[in-house]
Amino acid sequence: MINTVLLVLAALVPAVFLGIYIFIKDRVEKEPWSLLAILFVSGIVICYPVVQVSPLVNGVIDNFFSLFAVSEDSTSVYLSSGTFTVYKGASNFLGVALIEEGFKWLAMFLITHKNKNFNSLFDGMIYAVFVSLGFAAFENILYAFSYGWDTVLMRAFTAVPGHVFDAVFMGYYYSLWHVYNKARNQERELKSRGFLEKSEHEFKSAKYLVLSIVVPVAAHGFYDFCLDLNRGYMVIVFYIFLIFLYFFCFSRVRKLSKMDSSDTAFSTSLVIKKHPQLVSVISELIPGTDVGGSKHDYAFTRPVGLSRNATVADIIDEYKRLHNNGDLATDVDSYIGQTEFVKQK
């Protein structure tokens, strides 16, 4: 009994530590535990449809590649070396990675894309990671009961972090989709209020949504493909790839954490960066100031009392109101907030 409890705890430890690490990196506004618990449990729940759908897809792949089987006699049937490699690729990328990452993505998207708590840049990453941690924790427990301590210890440094690394890719692009979508909505608001020409091209956010599923599927598929191909040199490739994932994904987490800000503030900076002429519109309303910017960055100010969740159109409208009331002419310093810089690169 004690050994069973210890085995389960050992299977859960990697997921717990990685979850705590990602949670700490969420700097701007911590997500409610209830939402994170729902995401974690959804990662467990999707294990059921995964084990139902994956064999069906692999069955189709097997039947297709059986058409290319070569027979030397009545008892031996095999695939040529090249066809076998393609078969393993299809099996791992489509039969495993696409199914697992697809269900993870679907759970994350359905639960969070309209959630009011999805309001900062890092949120997408923590959502993706907690779905994956639920999936990886449950999978690890099953492996623990089937194969014992050696497998649990090995997966603590390979498979469980591997699921998290896939989620880092997913969450990174999911967050970018969210903020670029907000930036596009800001552009439409600016057009409707006459601050931008109707003909101005808008931000494209759909590509980031596509990348949020394509990149993790590619990473997961290649991870499994290296192991499943069962060739000596591919084991070396696998460990090189795993080391790359450790360095790249943890650096990506730190980068997004450092960049973290409210989604409106971040999308506002994107809009200012793309349409620097809006800075001139703001500066012209403020007497005796020049907040134009250099060739490398742009500066703008928010009116005192206006939230960082205010859009560019809100900022301009507030300055116009203060300008028209004569408030800026009489006591400009009381109404101008801190100058903010938006880097071009």
Question: Mind explaining what this structure looks like?
Answer:
This protein has 345 residues and is mainly alpha-helical. The protein folds into 2 domains: 231 residues, no CATH class; 68 residues, no CATH class. It is 72% helix and 6% strand. The chain is built from 13 helices and 4 strands. It has a two-stranded antiparallel ribbon. The chain has a two-stranded antiparallel ribbon with strand order 3-4. Helix 1 packs parallel to helix 6 and helix 7 packs antiparallel against helix 8. The radius of gyration is 26 Å and the shape is elongated. About 3% of the residues have low confidence.
Q: Count all strands and give the number.
A: 4
Helix content: over 70%
Overall shape: elongated
Class computed from helices, strands and strand pairing: mainly alpha
Q: How far apart, in Å, are the first and last alpha carbons?
A: 58 Å
N-to-C SSE series? Answer: HHHEEHHHHHHHHEHHE
Q: Summarize the main sheet.
A: 2 strands, antiparallel
- Count of runs of 4 or more consecutive helical residues: 13
Overall domain count = 2
- In the sheet with the most strands, the strands line up as 1-2
Strand content: 5-15%
Low-pLDDT runs of 5+ residues are 288-298
Rounded mean pLDDT score: 83
Taking all Cα atoms into account, the compactness measure Rg is 26 Å
